[in-house]
Amino acid sequence: MKNVVVLGSGFAGLWAAVGAARRLDELHIPARDVGVTVISSQPFHDIRVRNYESDLTACRIPLSDVLDPIGVVHITADVTAIDTAARTITFSGSDGFGSQDYDRLVFALGSSVDRPDLPGLREFGFDIDTYDQAIRLSRHLASLADGPPMPGAATAVVVGAGLTGIEAACELPGRLVGLFSGRDGCTPRVLLIDHNPFVGADMGDAARPLIEAALADNGVEALTGVGVTAVDADGLTLSTGQRVAAATVVWCAGMRANPLTALFRIELDRLGRLPVDDYLQVVGVPGVFAAGDVAAAKMDDEHLSVMSCQHGRPMGRYAGYNVISDLLGEPMLALRIPWYVTVLDLGPAGAVYTEGWDRQVVAHGAQAKATKRVINTERIYPPLDGDRAKILAAAAPELQPRPARGR
């Protein structure tokens, strides 16, 4: 029996596993001949891009709901070593240590928020990088609202004015008002801090005025051109020496690929990502494919993939198709994505929708918010009714069209 192992169960990992199962089904290969196994630290597929929202009820999907109907095995464990010469994965889980041989591997362990070694950040900072961290933040906010009045109790500071930071900052005023309503001496306040001279540095000139207006409408104070030097239980210190009293500091400044990319001992890009070819094969490492945030893939002749589900999902589907095709000597499919969009949630102020790598605004306000709502609640979900045929069909190596404006 040949083994295909997928590491990770995020957007790329899940769809790589389903894509591999789909390709086996398409080729009429019985499970006794080729097995597909997913190894990931959680028995869930988390809709990570929604972690800025207040209600995460629908954001954690048991892997068994998707993988069991299609015959994919799941092991809940952390990967500790990868031996590419012996083609063996070593892992550690609640049941102890183990290993898994592979004939082909899809590395899709994603990324994590890039936390610098700032005094107090690890002890007192929060983030929304994972479902568990987002829940931790929610519980922290609730405990502040239920606790005794204290300076900065209703003040939250978001560090990093990129897409994640902007979305988190736009949601927090409403959350704080709901929690602290009627509490004397607790006036909700949200600050968004970034070392760049303006917010949304990657969103382009056309979108920036809309973002700045939305932040102001939502009651978010933007403080740009300044860094953070320390965090403590009562607030943070800025690079200017200014002290900000805040019971909540949410770190959203930067992402980095899973550090296990270093195990392959090849040159990584500045984000720690593996170089891959058009078929998602890791350059210079036979038998290994990579997809999602750990892979730097060409989307066209000029642009590499970005760390987003927009690219992670199709990369996963194509990696799943290609890993089986490569294993069985069948033709592989090259992945190129000829379009790029960004739909940024701006909380009560709506959203902004841009097209192209130069991010030209094509919709904003309520119209763009409708598009964002469909993306967050429909487009990025796998079928959840247990229907094997639907699950496999959803992993077809085909590019979805751009999200419809206003839908």
Summarize the structure.
This protein has helices at 11-26, 63-67, 121-124, 131-146, 163-180, 204-217, 309-327, 366-379, 388-393, and strands at residues 2-7, 34-40, 44-46, 60-62, 73-76, 78-83, 88-93, 96-101, 104-107, 111-113, 155-159, 189-194, 220-224, 228-232, 235-238, 243-245, 248-251, 255-257, 274-275, 288-290, 295-296, 341-345, 351-355, 360-365.
Tell me what you see in this structure.
- This protein has nine helices and 24 strands.
- With 407 residues, it is α/β, with parallel strands linked by helices.
- The chain has a five-stranded parallel sheet with strand order 5-2-1-9-20.
- Strand 22 and strand 23 (351-355) form a beta hairpin.
- Helix 1 packs parallel to helix 7.
- The model has no long low-confidence stretch (mean pLDDT 96).
Which architecture of the largest domain does the CATH hierarchy give at level 2? 3-Layer(bba) Sandwich
Distance between the termini: 45 Å
**Approximately how much beta-strand content do the residues carry?**
25-35%
Considering DSSP H and I runs of 4 or more, what fraction of the residues is helical?
Answer: 25-40%
Structure class:
alpha/beta
- Mean of pLDDT: 96
Segments where pLDDT lies below 50 for 5+ residues? Answer: none
Give the CATH level 1 class of the largest domain: Alpha Beta
> Strand tally, please?
24
Structure annotation, total helices: 9
Rg to the nearest angstrom? 22 Å
Number of separate domains? 2
Which superfamily, in CATH terms, is the homologous superfamily of the largest domain? FAD/NAD(P)-binding domain
CATH topology value of the largest domain: FAD/NAD(P)-binding domain
Biggest sheet overview = 5 strands, parallel
Global shape? globular
Strand line-up across the major sheet: 5-2-1-9-20
